[in-house]
Amino acid sequence: MARAGEVVAGCLEMMKQHCRPGVTTAELDEKAERFIRKHNGTPTFKGYRGFPASICASPNGMVVHGIPGPYALKDGDIISLDVGVTLDGWVGDGAVTVAAGEPGQLALRLMEVTQASLMRAIAKCVPGNHLGDVSHAVEEYVEANGFAVVRTLVGHGIGRNMHEDPQIPNFGMAGEGPLLKEGMVFAIEPMVNAGTHRVVVGEDKWAISTADGSLSAHFEHTVALIENRPRILTLAKEQEAPGLGTALPLW
User: Fold this and answer.
1) 10 with 56: CB under 8 angstroms?
2) Host H or E run for residue 178
3) Mind listing the domains of the chain with CATH numbers?
């Protein structure tokens, strides 16, 4: 899974470099599929329940599951990029939200808070904690900063399949839920809106957007509970884990 996660991380880093005004989401999808296959992986999303692309590309008020197409990024846009890779039968899943050009202060703050909430949740992925500790860490931080967590979409267990038990909401009560144990692997993915937490499904039956048209951000890592610590499997080797320092073994 670490090898699959490394391809996910590399693919996301590559796409971040290409997110600039004028680039279409279809172009990002083509680059992602080439990258994944070059590294001996298979795009997990492509064909999954009929999804037609290798990535989800969700700009601005689109929360998740955007189908890549002719939309060209504009200066100031933000876009959430979600990638799944299957390698030797194991799956890695990760997402980032990035800006094209110069985003506004609200967009920057939204991305910062969403990413920070993910790292706070990961810090709770320790054997002996409960799943509610992970969920509550997202909710508490996001709402303290004036944003809203999407309540109808969740993270998930991951392994041989992209979606495995348990479901991981981004809200909940600390100390409640299943006990976390050594060897569990989760895809933790805060989805955070600048306005209401409510979302709507698009006409294509895939894209999910904020109900009020406000901006949304999405960050995700695949995380394994190993040696009594969280190990991020979708963090590029040259990156650091914000807020976790040396307490988090990355590789």
Assistant:
1) no
2) none
3) 2-234 (3.90.230.10)
